[in-house]
Design goal:
With 273 residues, this protein is α/β, with parallel strands linked by helices. The chain is built from 7 helices and 12 strands.
Length: 273
């Protein structure tokens, strides 16, 4: 492990959720080591996740008040909000344990936090995939941006049990960071498993939803499927850089198509009750 830098810390809390994340956590922590507080919410990992976090001086908390090992998160917003409440700094950022920030993104965030009157208090974080150590220039899910960095006074709470997002207060000024967060992709099997798990979590979440909401969600997923298909065709003919392989792209398309069909079927079922 590289020694922790003695440069002035960025007065911002970074939140990371972990569960047996030893293989990727050190790379993630190395990228955010200049932040004043790194808050780890761990699912009682049985590998060396906690030991790695301790070496980086992280503040470690349990995701749930239980001694059960390898706890699976049932509601991501619930756990994210626990960290948000415990953060000691006004600025807050969250990142997954298998992702990492570019050095340029770290310095950009440093300049925002140190500015007494920043341009914005909510920031979209641009993201790019990494596959086999190479940055992917073209993918159907690009531009891939998420709100990952914000001032706590300008937000409410995280919402949605899966694919969680932060709910903003009215009239909060929003900006877009220029520099990237990197998202390494696992194997096709891992990616497919993750998509399947998220699909079933979403369906379980919508079990009691009304038919109109379910049909609306099904329509949204179908429209995204069509949009991604158009983007795939565009990238196939016009992308000059590295493309995400077709087998990986199919995972996104399959997830959207499958979830739209299941949501549509459940919506019709609820409508006929």
């Amino acid at each position: 492990m590289s020694s922790i830098s003695r440069v002035k810390k960025i007065l911002c809390t970074v939140e990371i959720l972990t569960r047996n994340s030893a293989q990727t956590l050190e790379r993630c922590l190395e990228s955010v080591k200049d932040f004043a507080e790194i808050l780890i919410l761990d699912g009682n990992s049985t590998d060396s996740t906690v030991e790695i976090a301790k070496r980086y001086g992280c503040r470690i908390m349990k995701q749930y008040d239980t001694d059960e090992l390898n706890v699976v998160i049932k509601d991501y917003s619930e756990v994210r909000n626990k960290g948000l409440r415990q953060a000691t700094h006004d600025w807050f950022m969250f990142i997954d344990s298998d992702e990492y920030l570019s050095p340029e993104a770290v310095e950009e965030i440093r300049s925002i936090v140190s500015n007494p009157a920043p341009q914005a208090y909510i920031w979209w974080q641009p993201r790019k995939y990494i596959l086999d150590g190479k940055v992917i220039d073209c993918a159907t899910t690009y531009p891939n941006r998420q709100i990952r960095f914000f001032h706590k006074d300008r937000v409410k709470n995280f919402v949605k049990p899966v694919h969680e997002r932060i709910e903003l207060k009215p009239d909060a000024p929003v900006g877009v960071l220029k520099n990237y967060e990197y998202v390494p992709l696992g194997t096709k099997v891992e990616l497919a498993g993750r998509s399947s798990r998220y699909t079933y979590m979403e369906l379980a979440m919508q079990n009691t939803a009304g038919p109109v909401k379910l049909l609306r969600l099904a329509f949204r997923q179908k429209m995204l499927f069509l949009l991604y298909s158009l983007r795939f065709a565009r990238n196939l003919f016009f992308c000059r850089g590295s493309k995400l392989p077709i087998s990986y792209e199919w995972n996104w398309h399959k997830y959207l198509l499958f979830s739209s069909l299941v949501l549509f079927r459940q919506g019709l079922k609820n409508l006929c009750k």
